[in-house]
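ugh finaly. both done.
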Amino acid sequence: MDAQLDTLSQLVGNHLATRGWRLVTAESCTGGWVAEVVTATAGSSGWFDCGFITYSNDAKCALLGVSPMTLARHGAVSEATTAAMAKGALERSEADLALSISGVAGPTGGSRTKPVGTVCFGWASTGETPQTATCHFDGDRESVRRQAVVFALTELLRRYA
């Protein structure tokens, strides 16, 4: 793991451990990359609960409780879906804070309204309404996915400081 991801993971871990919180991830286009980054940090068992990799729409519904109506109305790559993913991950774990990601990493799969590089995020803490964001990243598939991991962890720190 590179130095930037290692540093972010340590910062997230320190932040969560100080508060006595545990993290759950719900990932689609990143395929578990956030969970891999945080579990590479020694001591993460004290602040990381679990991760869901819900790549298909069926998995989002079955494992996280995302409504098929939300997916039909907004699509998998939407803030409505990532809000539901984060909420569902919290409800199905022992965590206090959830992070979710769904996007179009490419090189195909984009559309006029959701081009390659479009990634939506959700963050939720117990008892609060999920927060969301959408970014448009440049680069190849790996670059888009890496940028999504960095953004998700950086924003977690910013939003829950």
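ok and the 2nd:
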Amino acid sequence: MAELWFYHLERSELERALPPLLEKSLQRGWRALVRAGSAERMEQLDAAIWAFRDDSFVPHAREGDPARQPVWLTTESGNPNGAQALFLVDDAEPGDLSGFERACLLFNGADPVALELARSRWKQMKEAGVTASYWKESASGRWEKQQ
């Protein structure tokens, strides 16, 4: 079963935080699946990944053949591109995590609804025996694992 990492966004917006995490997944040789809660959000993330940095290219798609895509953007369950890393954003349902090496739930710490949902998911996953860890942005913008 996948480890579940909770990423508490405090300094960065999702559109700035997600692309570097996708890059790290690709550098590991992993495929990634980004699951969002709505089609509108998926469109925003698609545009943000393309425009992330001039010196960066994160190959991704949300249409076509998912099996050909290193990063697949969707609102659907499943793992159509055989990803090792799952990124959950905007209250997307985790579903079955067994086919992934790692799942990452990114949430906006300034949004009380998102914060409460993340707390609820943390409790639910811990009770289900999922190994979970909590990551928070430092003042320098780096991710630090919290104890």
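summary for the 2nd one i guess: The chain has a mean pLDDT of 93.
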